[in-house]
Recover the amino acids of this structure.
């Protein structure tokens, strides 16, 4: 929780401090053998065309790529992680050898494992985000980083553990990881970009806090592979919230003791590349993204939620002077644990993000998307001796709306719906309907400080076939009050006249 609550403060760190010199200097001959260089385009910054992950715009430094560096860093990290796991968890699962790995490569068998839910659906995606981060910090683009993340996940599944490789871990690490890591990479670059002059020690430390691979390669090689990725004046809105609530409804009596009556929590969120900024184009994957992480504390446990979505391919559009938007293909990763059950999904969706200026001081921002992913769900207190985990294909949709009243107030509502099917389920086949609705009203009190009330309802209807597991009907409803530290006193409204 402390990691997430500090990100907004890092965006405000002082810029002036002694800069670090690179620790590693490689001979020019060696670099030429492992590097490629892309120079800035000769066209104007307003050029249009298909989304290009390799595009280097006028005014940006040449982009060097080193394909060998992440191919060394990822296995070194995996070796260190495997050694740690052997010491802490023993040889049974992590005593892998070259022989066990080769047998996994040749024969598998690939399946759907039932390890701890948080490890599978949160730990593995973060592990994959580090693989991706090493590639991005070596100058590679989003899709090249995605390839390295998937290859790294495959190597870990076959050589990192003695257990059979699993499809769900491959998806969570290989694809879920990049969907988490790219927003972190962008936010780390925002920290490095902020202020006047080159980033010094404190901003470098802030970037390390957000994206460790980025900071590591900048420490080792300076800006050779990780020059600051310019935000191109992207419209952003970040906020940190902390509050307390009361569970007004709970449908799952077995969990009541662990959940408690009065949960407390905190959150960090950032929207990046909001529509409406003149001259801003969506040229690379995740030139628009929305990232949210929060933590809740019940009676006896902490619960973490991460939800991120970003534009992979898309184009902007507008209707008149008041309505601007972007539409295309989005990638998303959701992991939430509403006190009584857990759910996670990695997905691709078609959708749009927009801003509609209703009046001079009033604006409506929103995102609507629908698609399909691969997900998992399970109750926190299992039934009997069997783990209540259900994996499968997951059609899903999202509608998020924010009504902004100048500097005065913000009304925010987001509805999510998921249908977890039996397609691709390893066991406990069946169908689950999961929904999440959260709404809040915040009023700015002074400066960047706001107070508000929020409402959250999450439900799960699980029906299993061919299994001893009974149907599950779970829901939790929470009402609370919260304080918000705003990154923008206009609540993220993009106003060309103000900009």
């Amino acid at each position: 929780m402390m990691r997430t609550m500090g990100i907004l403060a890092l965006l405000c760190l002082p810029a002036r401090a002694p800069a670090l010199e690179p620790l590693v200097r490689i001979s020019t001959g060696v670099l030429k053998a492992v590097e490629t260089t892309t120079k800035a385009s000769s066209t104007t910054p307003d050029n249009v065309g298909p989304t290009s992950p390799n595009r280097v715009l006028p005014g940006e430094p040449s982009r060097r790529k080193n394909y060998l560096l992440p191919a060394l860093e990822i296995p070194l990290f995996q070796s260190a992680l495997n050694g740690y796991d052997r010491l802490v968890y023993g040889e049974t699962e992590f005593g892998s050898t070259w022989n066990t790995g080769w047998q996994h490569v040749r024969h598998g068998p690939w399946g759907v494992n039932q390890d701890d839910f948080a490890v599978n659906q949160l730990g593995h995606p973060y592990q994959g985000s580090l693989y991706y981060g090493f590639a991005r910090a070596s100058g590679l683009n989003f899709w090249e980083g995605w390839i390295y993340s998937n290859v790294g996940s495959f190597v870990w599944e076959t050589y990192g553990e003695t257990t059979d490789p699993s499809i769900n871990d491959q998806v969570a690490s290989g694809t879920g990881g990049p969907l988490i890591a790219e927003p972190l990479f962008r936010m780390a670059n925002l920290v490095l970009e902020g202020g006047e002059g080159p980033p010094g020690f404190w901003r470098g430390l802030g970037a390390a806090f957000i994206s460790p691979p980025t900071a590591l390669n900048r420490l080792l090689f300076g800006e050779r592979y990780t020059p600051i990725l310019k935000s191109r004046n992207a419209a952003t809105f970040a906020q940190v919230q902390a509050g307390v609530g009361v569970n007004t409804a709970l449908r799952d009596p077995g969990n009541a003791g662990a959940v408690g009556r009065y949960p407390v929590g905190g959150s960090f969120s950032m929207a990046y590349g909001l529509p409406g900024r003149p001259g801003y184009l969506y040229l690379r994957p995740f030139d628009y993204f929305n990232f949210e992480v929060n933590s809740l504390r019940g009676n006896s446990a902490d619960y973490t939620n991460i939800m991120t979505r970003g534009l992979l391919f898309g184009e902007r559009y507008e209707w008149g002077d008041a309505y601007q938007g972007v539409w295309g293909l989005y990638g998303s990763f959701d992991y939430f644990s509403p006190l009584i059950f857990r759910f996670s999904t990695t997905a691709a969706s078609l959708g749009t993000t927009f801003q509609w200026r209703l009046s001079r001081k009033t604006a409506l921002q929103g995102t609507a998307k629908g698609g399909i992913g691969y997900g998992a769900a399970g109750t926190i207190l299992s039934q009997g001796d069997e783990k209540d985990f259900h994996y499968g294909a997951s059609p899903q949709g999202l509608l998020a709306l924010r009504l902004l009243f100048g500097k005065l107030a913000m009304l925010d509502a987001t509805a999510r719906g998921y249908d977890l099917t039996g397609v691709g389920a390893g066991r406990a086949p069946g169908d689950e309907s999961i929904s999440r609705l959260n709404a809040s009203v915040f009023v700015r009190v002074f400066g960047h400080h706001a107070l508000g009330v929020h409402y959250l309802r999450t439900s799960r209807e699980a029906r299993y076939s061919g299994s001893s597991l009974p149907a599950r009907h779970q829901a939790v409803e929470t009402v609370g009050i919260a304080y918000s530290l705003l990154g923008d006193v206009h609540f993220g409204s993009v106003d060309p006249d103000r900009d």
Remarks:
- The chain has twelve helices and 14 strands.
- The CA atoms of residues 196 and 203 lie 12 Å apart.
